[in-house]
Amino acid sequence: MPHSLAGPFARFQPFVAGGGTLDLRAATLRLTIPPTGARRYADAQIDDYHSLRRSRFPWRPPLRMSVRARMSHESSPRHLAEHPERSERASFVTRHSLQGTAGFGFWNDPFTLTGGGVVAAPNVVWFFYASPPSNMALVEGVPGWGWKAAVINSSRVPGIILAPAALIAALLTKVPGLGRRVIAAARRAMRVSEAILPQSMTEWHTYELEWREREAIFWVDGVETLRAPDPPRGPLGFVAWVDNQYAIATPQGRFGFGMVETTEPQWIELESVSTLRVTPDGVKQNSGILELVEASNHEDTKARRPQRKTS
């Protein structure tokens, strides 16, 4: 893996683990993890906050982000992921679907010792994928896994409720009903909006979001897919990644974190990443931090250049 990135991705910091690679091509950047066992963590990532304290993360609203991307595998079909015993094809389909998590957008990197050596409650505005056994059931009627547009604002949640250390503590799984009460309290206090994205993950799409102070709006190829009230105010950092993690936090009080086995190389490929500052009068200005990557002579993407969509 390169110690630094060149060209239009030079402003991002690379991070890889478990054999992950970053392949900078003429028109794209491909983030790849290799086949990996369930006892080993693998990650391929770029971000713009790695050496910063959370209070110094670079992004606040209002802004607009646009990412043109595709992935190596599709999402697991819902009926097979929820009831694998009902289909003879379930193990084949699951094995050949994207395993772990992947995505891009803005978050506060809550689960690492950033910003004074502490973990934090999650705040995100992003496009996010998680495969089974992940089950973060945060919104009524929306599956706890899948390819989503998502917003989480935990700024009003008491730290003791959403501290990741508390969520994963063994105590929560051993004291009857405690985990369920913690999740219920967190869901009442958090502001969460999600929408499943039906588009093929393996085809090129243009993903956009506009992060405003009072709402966040998501598009895919120009079609609005989510309008979320009360997003976090920031500061947040940009990240794009693919890894083999899973996380479980259900309303029934079930918790779990770990890694899943991947039997094939998995990747997310970026053709462009850009962001515009949006001024109060609606004028959009280049941020100078996330830069446009021009796709020239890229035949696979040229034929399917979509219009803007919203989530």
Overall 3D form: globular
CATH architecture: Sandwich
Query: Uncertain runs with pLDDT below 50, 5 residues or more?
Result: 79-93, 164-174, 287-311
Number of helices: 7
Mean residue pLDDT: 79
Spatial extent as radius of gyration:
19 Å
Kindly report the CATH topology: Jelly Rolls
Total beta strands:
18
Task: Give an account of the 3D structure.
The protein has 311 residues and is mainly beta. It contains seven helices and 18 strands. The chain has a single domain (7-310), classed as Jelly Rolls, CATH 2.60.120.200. The protein has helices at residues 78-82, 90-95, 159-162, 164-168, 170-174, 178-189, 299-302; strands at residues 13-17, 21-24, 29-33, 43-47, 63-71, 101-107, 124-130, 135-136, 146-153, 191-196, 205-211, 215-229, 237-243, 245-249, 255-259, 266-278, 284-286, 309-310. Strands 2, 3, 5, 11, 12, 16, 17 and 18 form an eight-stranded antiparallel sheet that branches. The chain has a seven-stranded antiparallel sheet with strand order 1-4-13-6-7-9-10, with helices on one face. It has a three-stranded mixed sheet with strand order 8-14-15, with no helix packed on it. 41% of the residues are buried.
